[in-house]
Amino acid sequence: MEKLIITAAICGAEVTKEHNPAVPYTVEECVREAGSAIDAGAAIIHLHVREDDGTPTQDKNRFKLVMDAIHAKYPDVIIQPSTGGAVGMSNDERLQPTELKPEMATLDCGTLNFGGDEIFENTENTIKYFGEKMIERDIKPELEVFDKSMIDMALRLGKKGYIKSPMHFDFVMGVNGGISGTLRDFVFLRGSIPADATYTVAGVGRFEFPLAAAAIIDGGHVRVGFEDNTMLAKGVPAKSNGELVEKVVRLANELGREIASPAEARQILGLKQK
């Protein structure tokens, strides 16, 4: 079985210090939280960025500041910027971090009702446009899917040349408006991707660690971090992203999976070695 790639989603665009005071906003805080996750075993940092007051931004200059600061201390880690941005941003605004030519970036494969009047809009043309830009910039997309229909969209657009194979999916499960975080639905998504594809599971809230265990057993990969869940256990806030990664490492050790280094993650995902 392949080694386990752990991704740490260190801050997201929605979670705040009110949810957990360790959620990072500043460049220094992002380096601290990325470092805690990398030291614990994360090979990939999934990155959103904020202004110092916590306001989410897709400004490529802010991304560059944070990415350069992380790479200055951890040159081997894979940094995967998000192109999700925040509700209401334009396509080109969301795509700004891809201008920095990262190894990977996220590509959301469908529209989602986030709750209330918030709609996370990703039309077919948006997905095509993002796919074309990532091919043009030699970036491997992590295909974020919140439901089975989004897998179908990715596969259909892959046949049309907008997304290259082998594909790498991220099953984001347990989000309001998306698929639930049950084992039944994990099996459904897992059985819906091509044989040559890889996948990561991101369970939101209380689904984080049960789904991590399922992915570890199945041979998939795992995402944890404050973006998805700020609690180490019920009623116990995590002190850092590193604590969440450490818990996954303990699960992997118990279940017989070794942890992938960034170099090994690049090999598994078909990225160029540094």
How would you characterize this protein structure?
With 274 residues, this protein is α/β, with parallel strands linked by helices. The protein has a single domain (6-269), classed as Alpha-Beta Barrel (TIM Barrel). Helix content is 36%, strand content 20%. The chain is built from 9 helices and 14 strands. The strands form 4 sheets. Strands 5-2-1-12-11-10-9-6 form an 8-stranded parallel sheet, sandwiched between helices. A two-stranded antiparallel ribbon has the order 3-4. Strands 7-8 form a two-stranded antiparallel ribbon. Helix 1 (27-40) packs across helix 2 (60-73), helix 1 (27-40) runs parallel beside helix 8 and helix 7 (208-218) runs parallel beside helix 8.
Summarize the structure.
The protein is an alpha/beta fold. The protein has helices at 27-40, 60-73, 91-94, 124-136, 148-159, 183-190, 208-218, 241-255, 262-269; strands spanning 6-9, 44-47, 49-50, 56-57, 78-81, 104-108, 112-115, 118-120, 140-145, 168-173, 198-203, 221-224, 231-233, 236-237.
